[in-house]
Write a structure and sequence with these properties.
This protein is α+β, with helices and mostly antiparallel strands. The chain is about 45% helix and about 20% strand. The chain has helices at about 10-35, 45-75, 85-105, 125-140, 190-195, 200-210; strands at about 85, 110, 120-125, 150-155, 160-170, 215-220, 225-235. A hairpin with a 3-residue loop joins strand 6 and strand 7. The chain is globular and about 70 Å long. The two termini are about 40 Å apart.
């Protein structure tokens, strides 16, 4: 635990923003349930609507708490236990996790090649899965109805790396917001209009995780056309040598 008098300005800012963002949905849940508890509403349909709204706010809180947990874990580098992983297995699980959300919005998830074979990286399974879940969920969240997500990977032999590319047909990122994409607690204008519970830690955490894995992440986007995110990770042999 960090002592209060040893907290950096960034730590203090993080705590203040987290507390502020958590307070609004928590207060809303309390108010909605209080209306029901005090009997102000007796109509079953209206009660069901209030419960549904409270449930949505509670789900938003859960997303925020996941962000805070990730932020806390990444602050302690000793928790980042690394092992040899087949990155393709992580990509398969991430696709499986996100596909139902894409299906709900009629969004097609298409990948250019089969996720077969073995491309090994040194990494933490949980954190890398979080990376691709976050990128893919953003591709769903900020996509157009009945849009498309195109998923691809390749081996960059000169760099001895695997390159994962995720492109969507979404709303895109305005040019003047591009410098905010990977900043902690920053959201662009389009993201604010589509926000659903996140604290704005998503891509800043993704960038931190990728860098902790000695990798790189880049984003290219055009408003109204879509966004492409490229993740590059170094490859290794399974026994731990250079590929």
């Amino acid at each position: 635990m960090v002592e209060i008098n040893k907290m950096t300005n960034e730590d203090q800012k993080a705590l203040a923003i987290m507390a502020h963002d958590l307070k609004a949905p928590l207060s809303a849940v309390i108010d909605l349930l209080d209306v029901i508890n005090k009997g102000y509403v007796t109509d079953v349909v209206k009660i069901k609507d209030l419960v549904g709204r409270a449930t949505q706010k509670a789900e938003n809180l859960s997303v925020m708490l996941d962000d805070i947990l990730d932020y806390t874990l990444l602050a302690n580098k000793t928790l980042l236990k690394l092992e040899v992983l087949n990155i393709l297995e992580i990509l398969k699980e991430s696709l499986s996790t996100v596909r139902p959300y894409a299906d709900d919005r009629g969004i097609t998830v298409r990948f250019k090649r089969e996720l077969t074979g073995e491309l090994n990286v040194e990494g933490n399974y949980t954190f890398l899965l979080r990376v691709f879940n976050n990128i893919l969920m953003n591709a769903v969240k900020y996509n157009k109805e009945n849009g498309e997500i195109v998923f691809d990977f390749s081996e960059d032999t000169p760099k001895n790396a695997v390159v994962v590319t995720i492109s969507d047909t979404g709303i895109g990122i305005p040019e003047d917001d591009m410098d905010k994409v990977f900043r902690i607690f920053e959201r662009g204008k389009n993201a604010r209009r589509n926000i659903n519970g996140s604290l704005g830690l998503g891509l800043s955490l993704v960038k931190q995780i990728i860098e902790d894995h000695k990798g790189e992440i880049d984003v290219v986007s055009t408003v109204g056309v879509g966004t492409t995110i490229v993740v590059t990770l170094p490859l290794i042999k399974k026994e731990g040598g250079t590929k």
